[in-house]
Amino acid sequence: MTQDSGLNTKDSKIRCSWATSDPLYIKYHDEEWGKPVYDDKILFEFLILEGAQAGLSWITILRRRENYRKAFAGFDVQKVAAFTDEDVERLMNDEGIIRNRLKINGAIINARLFIGIQKEFGSFSKYMWSFVPGGKPIQNQIKKMSDVPPRTELSDQISKDMKKRGFKFFGTTICYAHMQATGMVNDHLLTCCAR
After folding, report:
1. d(C-alpha 120, C-alpha 107), whole Å
2. Lesser CB count within 10 Å: N end or C end of the chain?
3. What does the UniProt keyword field contain (predicted)?
């Protein structure tokens, strides 16, 4: 089996080739990636994590996920939206997260905008899923990982709308990663055990 068409791991299950032998990656792949998420708290968590990931590998962020949970008030959007300059400095000194001032400030701005969307649409979930035809996950027919696009017209559309609203670190590639992570799109290989 080629690396691109799937990865046969120690437990003999075929997984998407990016789900390496790292147990954290395998658990995330099997239990979260591509599974539909409608809970605003989890959607906010992925908004924070995907923004932090910009320019880095996902495993880098995944390994720091619990640190992010502590640093960002358990991903409580109301608390993050109320972060002050003192909180920014606290986060800049937190070795457990990516200490990038633009990303930290972006997360706080995004929290405030997230709340605005909740007020406008009833929930962030309703807003995000309203972009998806029929509000149902898009089931892509992925035969090999090189078939997975880095962005789509839909991620362009969502990203454009969110940028217009002022969101930071949510370009079309990050948007598409967010869509994959929250199951708006299923990009698991057709042969993958987690499909």
Report:
1. 20
2. N
3. DNA damage, DNA repair, Glycosidase, Hydrolase, Metal-binding, Zinc
